[in-house]
Write a structure and sequence with these properties.
The chain is of the alpha/beta class. About 35% of the residues lie in helices and about 15% in strands. It is built from twelve helices and twelve strands. A six-stranded mixed sheet has the order 3-4-12-9-10-11, sandwiched between helices. Strands 7-6-5-8 form a four-stranded parallel sheet. Helix 3 links the parallel strand 6 and strand 7. The radius of gyration is 22 Å and the shape is globular. The chain starts with 6 loop residues before the first strand and ends in a 38-residue tail after the last helix. The structure holds pyridoxal-5'-phosphate. The site of pyridoxal-5'-phosphate has 21 residues, from helix 2, strand 9 and helix 7.
Length: about 375
């Protein structure tokens, strides 16, 4: 049996030899995640071919791109003897849910600072979507008004500050918290996506090269990891980061600073940041979906059986395709890999807005069978097993 939930020595890919690799990781994710062909119905006019890297399948309640980062972050928390973790996110944060689940698995308490609308500050936040899982796995929720976060600047630094103040409160209570930045984005967490590129390279075959890689960017760590890894590993694919949260400039700076945090010099770091194509995909704003985005997500699910979330992956795909349609020559006949980063549970909070899905519902009345005497006595639904 693999040493699940244990810390194991980390063997970094050879092309990272110039970086300072973390000593351990804790085995949480179901890796490698599948790389599969995808019958995505979009961009058919450009004759593109799609593949899907399914990081949504690297666990179930502990799933999505945050899992790869948490393997390194929680290893450090355990190595350094912390007894709980603190992190921050929106009310439906996938990152907070993944952190709560992963922390529980390795026997750490979790404290989640969740940003809520001001009028919800005094209410029970309920059990919708990700909250059900965070609360089932015994996370302590600390609700913070989104207006407070905005008044602190509403950026990654503001999130850091909330984290740090929460950690100080916990320290005063005698706890020893490990602080995880928003989205798990920091140089250590980024190792999750350096390893992911190593994993991808094993899966790609030279006869079937990928031309483009598309990924959603929220806190930006996933994109930064992919960008640096593709550069160092000599990947030929063009990386497209669809920013669903911040301005493109924020991501450019973040990619460079993550690279430097990992030990790259400034020249290399800015080269890496310059190689990424940043597309804006915020649409109506973070976690706000337009009808067109939702319709796109529904069409993709209907044709391919793959469900994308509305906050990240679904939005990223929609806005990437809009960009490709406006720049057809760059994409005609190409092979596009879409990185599915997870987020399914958040979609459950959108059931209401997806009510307009095509209805394939009717009542069904089977003709009554005549059971032979003595057979199938138990005819209630429980008899169906
Ligand atoms: C957090 C998240 C992202 C964005 O990843 P970052 O590393 O924060 O940029 C994308 N998709 C899903 C489903 C996520 O939960």
């Amino acid at each position: 049996m693999a040493p699940w939930l244990q810390r194991v020595p980390f063997k970094a890919p050879s092309w990272t030899s110039k970086l300072k690799a973390p000593p351990t990781r804790v085995l949480l994710a179901n890796l490698p995640t599948p790389l599969m062909p995808w019958s995505c119905p979009l961009l058919q006019d450009l004759s593109v071919r799609w593949s899907l890297k399914r990081d949504d399948l690297c666990g179930l309640e502990l799933s999505g791109n945050k899992t790869r980062k948490l393997e390194f972050l929680l290893a450090e928390a355990l190595d350094k003897g912390h007894d709980c973790v603190v992190t921050v996110g929106g009310l439906q944060s996938n990152h907070c849910r993944a952190t709560a689940v992963a922390a529980r698995m390795v026997n750490l308490e979790s404290h989640l600072v969740l940003l809520v609308k001001d009028q919800m500050l005094e209410q029970d936040p309920g059990l919708e979507g990700n909250l059900l899982l965070s609360r089932l796995t015994d996370a302590t929720l600390h609700l913070c008004a989104a207006s407070t976060y905005r008044s602190l600047g509403g950026d990654l630094q503001a999130a850091d500050r909330l984290n740090e103040e929460m950690a100080q409160q916990l320290r005063r209570q005698g706890k020893n918290p490990y602080v995880i930045p928003v989205g798990g984005t920091c140089p250590l967490g980024t190792w999750g996506y350096l390893s992911a590129v190593d994993e991808l390279q094993e899966q790609l075959s030279p006869e079937d090269p990928v031309d483009h890689i598309v990924v959603a960017a929220g806190s930006g760590g996933t994109l930064a990891g992919l960008a640096l890894a593709l550069h160092l590993a000599g990947g030929k694919q063009q990386l497209h980061g669809v920013n669903i949260q911040h301005e493109p400039d924020v991501y450019r700076k973040l990619i460079a600073s993550e690279a430097m945090g990992l030990g790259c010099d400034e020249t290399l770091a800015s080269a890496v940041a310059g190689e990424v194509q940043l597309l804006s995909g915020a649409g109506l704003g973070y976690a706000q979906s337009s009808q067109l985005e939702l319709r796109c997500l529904a069409e993709v699910a209907k044709v391919s059986g793959v469900v994308l979330d509305h906050v990240y992956a679904g939005k990223a795909l929609y806005h990437f395709c809009e960009y490709a349609k406006a720049n057809p020559d760059a994409f005609r006949n190409s092979h596009i890999l879409f990185w599915h980063t997870g987020g399914l549970f958040g979609l459950y909070s959108q059931a209401e807005r997806l009510q307009s899905l095509p209805k394939r519902v009717s009542s069904f009345q089977p003709t009554q069978p005549q059971p032979k005497v003595g057979e199938r006595e138990n005819t209630g639904p429980e008899g169906l097993g």
